[in-house]
Amino acid sequence: MSCKWVLRIKRNNVYKARLVARGFEQKPGIDYCETYAPIISMSSLRLVLTIIIQKNLEIYALDIKTAFLNGDRQETIYMEQPMGYNDNSGRLNCEACIFVRRSKQSEIFIVLYVDDLLIAGSDDSEVGIVIQLLRNEFEMSKAEVANEFLGISFEYIHSKLSLGQKAYVEKVLNKFRMADCKPSGTPLVPKSTSSDFVNGERFHGPYRELVGALLYLSMTTRPDILYSVNCLSQIQEQPTNSAWAGLKRILRYLKGTSEFQLLFCKSDSDNIMINVYVDADYWQIHMIQNLFLGTLFSLMIVL
């Protein structure tokens, strides 16, 4: 298969060049069978963080270098040389990304997102042993007290943990040339529905790209834009100029609220309680193809 260079400027102006194989050229069932990478869901991550803050545990972040090179393959795969070199030859029912170790003296939580890990435990020495065991097997690029994970910033204040994505919001604003826009007080005009955006001239531009960026943000730390993004994501097949203006309004709302954070607070009670709320919006059935159904889960006092 062929390959390509992926060049990035990471946080703190760190330059990174990664050579990747173009695996999409492989044919399933011929070149490979079932394959996966462990990726924890954002809801599961928030659940674990709720338990961690409730138990007042310290969190550590780890990153495994070249994680995909540590596996053993049964197949033989050949890749072309990268550009610049001469070629003279012509999921389970449970969350599989959460690991818990309990003993009489302590308990340790590990969450996994491909090669990024969060480890928290009630005994720092036990956590240190686990980290060292991982170091014995894998080369780690970092193992430090966590202040960031997957681009989500962590801020500790007493028995509270705040999650924010200000840097991500600014990155999206810059990418879509909205860094200097005028902030909006709401993501969309109140009581807006997708039917308000289906008529008009067709928009030809990065509509899906912006919807994807906003969906990721809404599913991690900004549920306040979830309804608005969901509303505009329903017309991705034939987006209009008015729908694009709606997405830009969401960006203007984010411009004024980039410092908004999700707050995890420790409960006064040690009893773990889960509450579930469900609601459906049936009155819009005649206006759109899919009705709106919402579910809300809270663990202790955290959504």
TrEMBL record:
One of its GO terms (biological process) is DNA biosynthetic process. Residues 3-88, 93-189 form the Reverse transcriptase Ty1/copia-type domain. InterPro entries: DNA/RNA_pol_sf, RVT_2. PANTHER family: GAG-POL-RELATED RETROTRANSPOSON (PTHR11439), INTEGRASE CATALYTIC DOMAIN-CONTAINING PROTEIN (PTHR11439:SF467). This is Copia protein.
